[in-house]
Write a structure and sequence with these properties.
SH3 type barrels, single chain, alpha+beta, five-stranded antiparallel sheet
């Protein structure tokens, strides 16, 4: 049971570390208020936290892991 817990914690910790690192890079690349595209939808980047980013869409707020922000989001420049 201890080995199973350690294994589960190790995999979970890996996701946390990836999101923290992605958040660091996202803060360098994105600016709050940027118009972004994710999954073909347009929204405004409202915040980048330690693990997640907040994107305001027209009818909802998306909370996405920072890894998705760095891998799937495109900045729309006018």
């Amino acid at each position: 049971t201890v080995a199973g817990f350690a294994l589960a914690f190790g995999f979970g910790g890996q996701n946390v570390a990836r999101n923290v690192l992605a958040g660091y890079y996202a803060r360098e690349y994105f600016d709050l208020g940027d118009t972004v595209l994710i999954n073909g939808e347009e929204g405004t980047l409202e915040g980048i936290g330690t693990l997640n980013a907040e994107i305001q869409m027209t009818d909802k707020v998306l909370i996405v892991p920072n890894v998705r922000l760095t891998e799937e989001v495109t900045i729309k420049k006018l």
